[in-house]
Amino acid sequence: MSLLPDRYVIGVDLGGTKIHTALADGDGNILAETRVPTETIKGPSHVIGRIIATIEQVREQAGLPAGFVETVSVGSPGPLDIASGIIHFSPNLGWHEVPLKKLLQEGLRTKVMIDNDANLAALGEHVFGAGRGVNNMVYITVSTGVGGGLILGGRLYHGATDGAGEIGHITVLPDGPPCGCGARGCLESVSSGTAIAREARRLVECGKGQNILTRAGGDPDRISAVTVAEAASGGDQEAVSIISNAARFLGIGVANVINLLNPDMIVLGGGVMEIGEPIWQGVRQEVEARTLGAARTHVQVVPAGLGRRAGVLGAVALALQMD
Amino acid sequence: MSLLPDRYVIGVDLGGTKIHTALADGDGNILAETRVPTETIKGPSHVIGRIIATIEQVREQAGLPAGFVETVSVGSPGPLDIASGIIHFSPNLGWHEVPLKKLLQEGLRTKVMIDNDANLAALGEHVFGAGRGVNNMVYITVSTGVGGGLILGGRLYHGATDGAGEIGHITVLPDGPPCGCGARGCLESVSSGTAIAREARRLVECGKGQNILTRAGGDPDRISAVTVAEAASGGDQEAVSIISNAARFLGIGVANVINLLNPDMIVLGGGVMEIGEPIWQGVRQEVEARTLGAARTHVQVVPAGLGRRAGVLGAVALALQMD
Questions:
Q1: Which of A164, A173, A294 is nearest residue B260 as measured by Cβ atoms?
Q2: What family is this (chains A, B) (predicted)?
Q3: Residue A60: partners with Cβ closer than 8 Å, 6 or more residues away
Q4: Please, how many CA atoms are within 13 Å of residue A121, restricted to the half-sphere of its CB?
C-alpha cells in the first residue's frame, strides 16, 4: 500500500525577474519549490523552456516519477486571456500575444491553467493566507507597480474580459503624474515603489533630499523606495513627506474599493507595505475619513500573510481548484 | 377555469418625495401602478401606512381580491440591512433604525423583501432595461445624489454588510468640495445635480453667471442643474464649463469602476444624464483616456432604459426573484 497522496499539482509564479515554481500535494502542502531568474531577454521560448525545467526540477526534488503531476497552473503578468491562455501583452516579460498555455501544454503533455499573477496572489492569500474563510476580499500589492485581485462571494472575480482588479490604474489624482498606462494620476503613479523613488529623485534634482541621496551612495540612479523608507525611518522629514503622500493616495484607493465593494477584508502586500507604520498610518487615516458607516466599521485592512509566496501558493490553489 | 396568471407581486420604490408602487404578474408585466407623495414629514408610521394604502390601491385597480399578492418587495434609501429589513439611516426619509420589513409584514400579512433603492434600480435595468442578458453590469444614477448598484456574475452583489455600490462616495478629487458624508471630493460632491447647482450659485455670488441667474428668474435659490443645463445648451460658456467639469469627474468615476470591475456594461441614469451630449461627451473622453486595453474596448457605456420606473421594476424583479 502506497503512502503517497493521490494528487500532485504544480504552481508557477512567472515574473519579470524570477520564476517561482512549487510542487504540492492535494491538500496544498508544498513538497518542493525553486526560484530561478526568468531571463526574459532571451525571449518567450527560452522562458517557457525554463518554466518546464523548474517543473522537472521540483518533481525530481520531491522524488516523483514523470507523469505523476496532474495539473500545472501559472500566474503570469497580463493582460491575458484565461480560456485561451494567451498573454496579450506584458511589458515586464517583453511579451506580445504569447500562447503560453498552448506552448506549455505541448511541452508538458499535462493540463495547464493560466491566470493573472495578481489574481493568483489574491487567491493564495484567500486560500492559505490572511483571507482564509473570508467571503469578499480585495488583495492589493504595492510594489514596483500596483496590482490587485478580487475575491467576491468566495471566488476569484475576473470580470468580462479577465481584466478585473486593475486597482493600480484607478485615478486618485486627476491631474497627477503621468502613468505608464498613458493616463494621469493613477494609484500606481503616486503610491508605487517606482513613484516613491521618482519623487525622491525629483527632490534631488532640485538640490534637496540630500539625506536620501547619501543613503543611495550619492548616486541618484540608485535611489529606490527602500532608500526613501530608510531615510524616513531615520527621521528625515523630506523622506517622511514622500512616504506620507504615497500612503495618503493608497488610502484613497483603498477607500474607493471599500465604498464600491463593501468587502470583509482588504489585504495589502508588496514591498512598499514593508515600509511599515508610516504607510499603514496614511492608509488607515484615509479609510477612516472616506468610507461609509457599516462598510467602514466592518472591513478589516490587514497585511498579506504569505509574502512572496502568495503567487505560487495561489497557482497551487488554482490547480487544486480551491477557490 | 381561470385565465388569471398564478402569481402576483408588488414592487414599491420608496423615495424621499414619492412612493411608486406597481402590481405585476409572474412574468413581470405591470398590471397597475400608482405614485403618491411620501409625506416623510409625518414620520415612519405614516409613511408605512401610505405604502400599504398604495398596495391596496393597485390591487383594487387590477381587480384582484385581497390575499392574492404573494410577495411585496420594497426599494428604500439606505444604508439598510437586507435580512432584518431595518433602515439604519436615511437623510432623505428622516429615518433612523426603522424596522420597515417587520412593520410592513405586520400590516400586510404577506412576505416582504427589502433592498437598497439603487440596487433595485440596477436590478430593474438588468432584468427589464438596458442591461438585459448582461453578465456584469454597473448601474449609476446621477441625480440629486449619485448612487449605484452592481450586477456581478448575473446577480446583484451586496457586499459584506449590504453596502456595496456606493459609487457616489468614491473620491475623484482628493481635496475637492466637502460632501454630505463628511469626506471631500466624492463623486457626488462634484458630479451630482446638487453639485452642478452649487457651482452655478458660487459663480453668481461672485457677480458672474448672469445668464444662469436670468434663467432662474433672478433668484439664486432657484438655480438648479436644469437651469445650468438650459444655459449651457443656449451656448452660455460659464454653464458649459460647469457641466463639463461635472462630466469629467463622472467619467473619472466610471473609468475607476471599469478598471476595478471590468464590466460588460455601465448603465447611466438619473436626471443629470438627461442633460445629454455635454455630459456623455465628458464621460466618454475620460473613459477613453483612463481605462485599459480589453476592458475599454469591451465595455458598453449606455443610457438607462427605464427612466423613473427602474426602481419599481427592480422591486418587481426582486419579488419574482428574477436576478
A1: A164
A2: Belongs to the ROK (NagC/XylR) family.
A3: none
A4: 31
| Residue A79 in contact with partner chain B when CB distance is under 8 A | yes
> What does the pLDDT look like over A263-297, one tens digit per residue?
999 999 999 999 999 999 999 999 999 999 899 99
What SS3 class is residue B274?
helix
Q: Which residues does chain B have within 8 Å of residue A82's beta carbon, measured at their own beta carbons?
A: none
pLDDT (tens digit per residue) in B98-109 = 999 999 999 999
Sign of CA dihedral B154, B155, B161, B164: positive
Residue type, A72: V
Region label for A149, one of left (φ > 0), alpha (ψ between -120 and 50) or beta (otherwise): beta
The whole-angstrom separation of Cα B125 and Cα B131 is 5
Positive or negative, the Cα torsion across A301, A193, A276, A119?
positive
- Portion 274-313 of B in contact with A at CB < 8 A: 289-295, 298-299
Nearest CA-CA distance, residue A54 and chain B, Å: 32
Q: Is B22 on the interface with A (CB under 8 A)?
A: no
Does residue B161 sit at the A interface (CB-CB below 8 Å)? yes
Which chain A positions have a beta carbon within 8 Å of B165's beta carbon?
Answer: 260, 262
In terms of Cβ atoms closer than 10 Å to its own Cβ (0-12, 13-18, 19+), residue A2 is exposed
Neighboring chain B residues of A291 at a CB cutoff of 8 Å? 169
- Residues of A in Cβ contact (< 8 Å) with B158: 262
Gyration radius from chain B CA atoms: 20
Of B150, B160, B299, the CB nearest to A264: B160
Rounded to a whole number, what is the distance in Å from the CA of B82 to chain A's nearest CA?
A: 13
Residue B301 and residue A307: Cα distance in Å, rounded? 38
> How far apart are alpha carbons B179 and A50 in whole angstroms?
54
CA separation for the pair B251, B187 (Å, rounded)? 10
Asked if A216 contacts B138 with a C-beta cutoff of 8 angstroms, the reply is no
Q: What distance in Å separates residue B115's CA from the closest CA in chain A?
A: 15
Looking at residue B152, its amino acid is L
For residue A150, which residues of chain B lie inside 8 Å, CB to CB?
260-261
Consecutive H or E run containing B23: strand B18-25
Q: Please check whether residue A136 is in contact with residue A151, taking contact to mean a CB–CB distance below 8 angstroms.
A: yes
Question: Average pLDDT, stretch B82-91?
Answer: 94
Q: What is the DSSP letter of A312?
A: H
Residue A21 Rama label (left phi>0; alpha psi -120 to 50; beta)? beta
Q: Is the pTM of this model over 0.80?
A: yes
Q: What is the pLDDT of residues A33-59, one digit of tens each?
A: 999 999 999 999 999 999 999 999 999
Residue in chain B nearest A184 by alpha carbon: B290
Rounded CA gap, B59 and B53, in Å? 10
Q: Does A263 touch chain B (CB under 8 A)?
A: yes
CA distance B24 to B141: 24
Minimal Cα–Cα distance from B34 to chain A, Å? 32
B222 Cβ contact list (under 8 Å, min separation 6): B216
For the residues B278-295, what does the mean pLDDT come to?
A: 96
Confidence check: pLDDT of A235 > 90: yes
B66 CB within 8 Å of a chain A CB: no
Q: For residues A135 and B158, is the Cβ–Cβ distance under 8 A? A: no
B60-74, B200-214, B307-321: the lowest-pLDDT one: B60-74
Which amino acid belongs to residue A255? A
Straight-line distance from the first to the last Cα atom of chain A, in angstroms, rounded to the nearest whole number: 31
pLDDT at A58: 97
